[in-house]
Design a protein that fits this description.
The complex is a heterodimer of chains A (about 260) and B (about 170). With about 260 residues, chain A is an alpha+beta fold. Chain A has a single domain, classed as Porin. Chain A is built from four helices and eleven strands. Chain A has an eight-stranded antiparallel β-barrel with strand order 1-3-4-5-6-8-9-11. Helix content of chain B is about 15%, strand content about 50%. Chain B contains two helices and eight strands, in the order ααββββββββ. With about 170 residues, chain B is mainly beta. Classes of the chains: A alpha+beta (about 260), B mainly beta (about 170). Chains A and B meet through α1, β5, β6, β7 and α4 of A and α1, β5, β6 and β7 of B.
Chain lengths: ~260, ~170
């Protein structure tokens, strides 16, 4: 995803430079306060099912910080942004015997935003909206109490799951001048996931050895247990999706390259 | 213009550079001797793994991993296409005895080797049978694999035993 971002910025920058548009690059940190509905359903049912055996329950994904890169192509009143964000998040449950169930998420997204506002001498404020797309990867593994990790077929929930993610974002950004061509970039946005066809956004294990029973993370663990027992397939509507969304806050340093 | 072309070339090479799992698959390709296979049972009352010395086996055999740069390539007939040959003198892991297999490796989010999976097609049922090992240690000359067996039908919090395989490269 990062490679695609760098290539895209490179190509667009050449075009913008030739056309004489102003270009700014920014780097910094994004904070996401996630709301992940289908995975939260899974967490609730998993915790309830294992409540007698857990010393620590699975947690909802916490507020996380990640890398942020952005290229802005702008005039005085309009801005077009191409951004890249990377987040790593995790959730784990610890059993009384010391074993643990772990989920490590890696989310990489690119967004294309358009906005309107005003700017004067690097001081500016814009409202924007746009689309994002990206990739979510999730490692689900079981850690035994001696520290050994199993990604293997001994546990149905083990696996390396992934799929694309997409949605739209709305927000406000501001730049505050610091020194000559350098300014501080501040952004607040609300990220909302598209809930289209499950085929394109269900978290799916890419390892074909688990394609039969354990290929998906269930939204209802009780139902999943019945499915596993009866050797059936997990229906689409009971699969966890890549519908991660929430509020995102960004702070970064912005440098005007071509002005 | 030359600068732009140079940067563009570097970026394209960056974009299409070799995948990490194929690099690891290449690294562990070769003939491996399994020096020992030790069985550990999980004691639920103490929460400890206990070595079952009577079940452990010295020099159970060899595993030959061949790499054709198609780690986890999926086709309609065979999900895995890297061939492997296993020659064991003991049948201690279910569905993993002497014969021909296909194999692949999986990396974790930290881009390190996590798992190797073997597959064969059962001639009686035409079903694909899989066996996976967690890779606990990996270097160019030695590997440690864990095979976990679960008595709780694949659900979490089950009681288990594990085989620890120590491999060295011939």
């Amino acid at each position: 995803m990062k490679r695609l971002f760098i290539i895209s910025v490179f190509v667009i920058s050449i075009g913008s430079h030739i056309n004489g548009q102003a270009i700014s690059f920014a780097g910094g940190a994004s904070f996401i306060s996630p709301k992940y509905l289908t995975f939260q359903y899974f967490i609730d049912s998993y915790n309830l099912y294992h409540k007698e055996y857990l010393q620590s329950k699975l947690n909802y994904l916490p507020t996380s910080v990640g890398e942020y890169l952005n290229a802005s192509f702008h005039g005085n009143h309009l801005t077009v942004d191409l951004g890249y964000q990377a987040f790593n998040m995790s959730s784990n449950a610890i059993f009384i015997n010391g074993d643990s169930r772990n989920f490590d998420f890696r989310v990489r997204t690119m967004d294309l935003l358009m906005g309107g506002g005003f700017s004067k001498k690097n001081l500016g404020i814009w409202a924007f909206g746009g689309l994002y797309f990206g990739l979510m990867k999730m490692d689900s593994y079981y850690k035994y109490n001696d520290g050994t990790v199993s990604f293997g077929l001994d546990k149905f929930l083990n696996g390396q799951f992934s799929n694309g993610m997409s949605g739209y974002t709305l927000g406000i950004k501001s730049s505050i001048p610091v020194y000559k061509y350098i300014s501080i970039l501040l952004k607040v946005e609300k990220v909302t996931a598209f809930r289209g066809s499950l085929r394109y956004n269900a978290l799916e294990d890419r390892n074909t050895s688990r394609q039969a029973l354990g290929a998906y993370i269930p939204t209802d663990f009780y139902h999943y247990k019945d499915i596993i027992t009866s050797n059936s397939y997990l229906p689409e509507e009971y699969q966890t999706r890549t519908d991660l969304e929430g509020f995102k806050y960004t702070i970064g340093l912005q440098i005007d390259i071509f002005k | 213009m030359k600068k732009i072309l140079l940067i563009a070339t570097v970026l394209v090479l960056f974009l299409f550079s070799c995948s990490k799992d194929n690099q690891y698959a290449r690294r562990i390709t070769g003939e491996w001797t399994v020096d020992k296979a030790e069985k550990y049972n999980f004691n639920t009352s103490t929460g400890q793994w206990v070595l079952d010395a009577n079940a452990s086996i010295n020099n159970p055999g060899t595993i030959i991993l061949t790499n054709d740069n198609k780690n986890k390539e999926k086709t309609s007939s065979f999900p895995y296409t890297n061939p492997a040959t296993v020659e064991f003198n003991h049948n201690f892991i279910y569905n993993f005895y002497s014969g021909d297999f296909y194999w692949s490796v999986d990396l974790g989010n930290d881009n390190d080797l996590k798992m190797i999976t073997f597959m064969f097609e059962d001639p009686n049922t035409s079903l694909y049978i899989y066996t996976s090992f967690s890779i606990v240690e990996n270097s160019k000359k030695s590997l440690t694999w864990y095979y976990f067996a679960d008595t709780n039908e694949g659900m979490d919090n089950g009681t288990q035993y594990k085989w620890v395989l120590s491999l060295s490269k011939l």
